[in-house]
């Protein structure tokens, strides 16, 4: 199958695709390409939870650690990139074709197949859009994301091919152009999100994404890019910080999205520390409540939230931070009062070395009363249908086996139902998604860390 979007002629309530002569219904969904952060499963879980919470109609057409292709009815919110913690780039597909053509063109070096790819690009209207947005001299980039093993080593070749094709087309428009990010200067045939941001390639519609899937491939224009400086600002410029215990704002935002939190919902973080989760939820326009046993944390979280409100001009922001013990949370918060609980309790001591299995087990057992006591209270403060997103420790051990906390049983005993990060209705029919459907929780673990995070999603 090959579809090129770009030259559509409207005939009645259908669009006639002049290249393939296919009739496509008017209420056609568009395909978006998503490039994720390091932890692609977590990023995809966040993205799908975000879309579901907004009742968006979507289907995952393809997923891999390199990129996701998702067909979506209607458009994405203008703020989608700021709303997501785990997505680096979003592209709008302009052409879709079989990966067999890409293999022909670059593995077998078929001139015919190369010509076909040039045609897809020409018909996509992408170069016309670059010309329209451009001033005098054009600056553009090409990034190749390849999920097909056989082609991966040729990503640089594909990048150069597309770069010269775009350059030649631009010359046809009388535009001089500079192609940025040649593979020979770098490890991957891709522009980083910071490069795209700094060179304003979204505004100038001048980054071409070439996403090669196992069966299908896409050519897309980057329409949004992650701004790491905003997240960094919230991490290191807030007035109160706690380097070891605090969570990175990007992860906090991902967890807020996993809880299906949307504007005006009430979100509680009962182990709020310096308020990282609360900050991200407040930016998502939720009403937030924090609780911490430590008086210094309560003051720190309050001041950080006040700083956030000033910094981001959040008029009407609704927040409060209370001092107290989670074991008596209902007394402080009330019963059936919150829509979402997103939280990371203590994860044990900072470890100097990778522990033995028995020592890791001891750490877990010592933490269990805090977690198990919290679970019961959490069920009482949540409204029916409300979600809990909870981090438990994931401890690396010397044998390579991780030691985790058996929290599922306790959550179910308290009346919670587990929500798997992925469900069948998210995928197009026939897509092999067992690897994702079988995931019961999500793990976030940096290679250099000894204790990672296991993230659970439950519903009352
Ligand atoms: C891992 S930290 C949370 C970090 C937080 N996400 C942040 O970004 O700052 C856990 C927090 O739980 C608080 N805590 C520990 N035991 C508690 C309890 N029984 N009730 C309430 N808070 C408690 C600690 O004071 C600490 O601030």
Number of helices: 16
| Average pLDDT score | 91
* Helix/strand/pairing category: alpha/beta
- Largest β-sheet summary: 9 strands, mixed
Q: Please give the CATH class of the largest domain.
A: Alpha Beta
Unreliable spans: 4-27
Overall geometric form: elongated
Number of domains: 2
How much of the sequence lies in strands comes to: 25-35%
Measured distance between first and last alpha carbons = 44 Å
What is the count of β-strands?
21
**Helix proportion:** 25-40%
Bound molecules: S-adenosylmethionine
User: CATH H level of the largest domain: which superfamily?
Assistant: Vaccinia Virus protein VP39
Any overview of this molecule?
- The protein has helices at residues 40-53, 80-83, 99-106, 111-124, 126-133, 149-152, 155-172, 193-198, 228-236, 249-258, 276-283, 295-312, 329-333, 357-381, 407-414, 434-437, and strands spanning 3-4, 8-11, 14-17, 22-25, 30-36, 58-63, 68-72, 87-98, 138-146, 177-180, 207-212, 216-225, 266-269, 287-292, 319-323, 338-343, 382-396, 402-404, 417-418, 442-444, 451-459.
- Helix 1 packs across helix 10 (249-258).
- With 460 residues, it is an alpha/beta fold.
- It folds into 2 domains: 3-226, 2-Layer Sandwich (VC0802-like); 233-459, 3-Layer(aba) Sandwich (Rossmann fold).
- Residues 4-27 have low confidence and may be disordered.
- The chain starts with a strand and ends with a strand.
- 35% of the residues lie in helices and 27% in strands.
- Strands 1, 5, 6, 7, 8, 9, 10, 11 and 12 form a 9-stranded mixed β-sheet that branches. Strands 13, 14, 15, 16, 17, 18, 19, 20 and 21 form a 9-stranded mixed β-sheet that branches.
- The radius of gyration is 24 Å and the shape is elongated.
- It contains 16 helices and 21 strands.
- The site of S-adenosylmethionine (SAM) has 22 residues, from helix 11 and strand 14.
- Residues 242, 245-247, 270-271, 273-274, 276-277, 291-294, 297, 325-327, 344-346, 370 line the site of S-adenosylmethionine.
């Amino acid at each position: 199958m090959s579809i090129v979007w770009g030259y559509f002629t409207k005939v009645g309530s259908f669009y006639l695709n002049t290249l393939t002569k296919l009739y496509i219904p008017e209420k056609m969904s568009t395909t978006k390409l998503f490039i994720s952060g390091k932890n692609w499963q977590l990023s995809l879980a966040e993205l799908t939870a975000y879309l579901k919470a907004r009742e968006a109609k979507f289907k995952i057409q393809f997923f891999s650690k390199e990129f996701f292709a998702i067909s979506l009815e209607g458009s994405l919110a203008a703020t989608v990139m700021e709303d997501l913690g785990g997505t680096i780039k979003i592209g709008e597909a302009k052409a879709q074709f079989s990966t067999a053509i890409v293999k022909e063109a670059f593995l077998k070096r078929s001139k015919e197949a190369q010509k076909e790819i040039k045609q897809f690009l020409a018909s996509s209207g992408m170069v016309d859009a670059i010309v329209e947005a451009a001033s005098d001299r054009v600056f553009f980039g090409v990034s190749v994301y390849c999920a097909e093993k056989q082609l991966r080593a040729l990503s640089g070749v594909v990048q150069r091919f597309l770069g010269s094709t775009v350059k030649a087309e631009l010359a046809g428009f009388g535009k001089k152009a500079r192609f940025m990010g040649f593979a020979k200067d770098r490890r991957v045939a891709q522009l980083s999100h910071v490069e795209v941001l700094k060179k304003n390639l979204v505004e100038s519609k001048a980054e071409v994404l070439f996403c090669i899937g196992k069966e299908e491939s896409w050519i897309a224009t980057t329409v949004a890019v992650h701004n790491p400086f905003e997240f960094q600002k919230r991490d290191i410029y807030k007035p109160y910080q706690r380097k070891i215990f605090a969570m990175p704002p990007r992860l906090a935002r991902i967890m807020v999205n996993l809880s299906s939190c949307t504007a005006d919902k009430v979100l509680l973080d009962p182990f709020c520390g310096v308020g990282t989760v609360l900050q991200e939820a407040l930016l998502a326009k939720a009403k937030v409540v924090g609780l911490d046993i430590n008086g210094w944390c309560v003051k720190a979280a309050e001041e950080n939230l006040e700083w956030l409100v000033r910094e981001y001009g959040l008029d009407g922001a609704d927040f409060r931070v209370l001092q107290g013990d989670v074991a008596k949370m209902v007394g402080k918060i009330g019963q059936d009062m919150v829509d979402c609980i997103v939280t990371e309790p203590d994860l044990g001591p900072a470890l100097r070395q990778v522990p033995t299995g028995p020592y890791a087990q001891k750490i877990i057992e010592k933490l269990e009363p805090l977690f198990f006591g919290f679970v019961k209270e959490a069920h009482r403060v949540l409204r029916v249908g409300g979600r809990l997103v909870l981090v438990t420790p994931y401890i690396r051990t010397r044998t390579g086996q991780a030691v985790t906390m058996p929290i599922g049983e306790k959550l179910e005993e308290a009346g919670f139902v587990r929500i798997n990060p992925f469900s069948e209705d998210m995928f197009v029919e026939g897509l092999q998604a067992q690897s994702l459907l079988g995931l019961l929780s999500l793990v976030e673990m940096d290679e250099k860390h000894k204790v990672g995070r296991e993230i659970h999603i439950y519903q009352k």
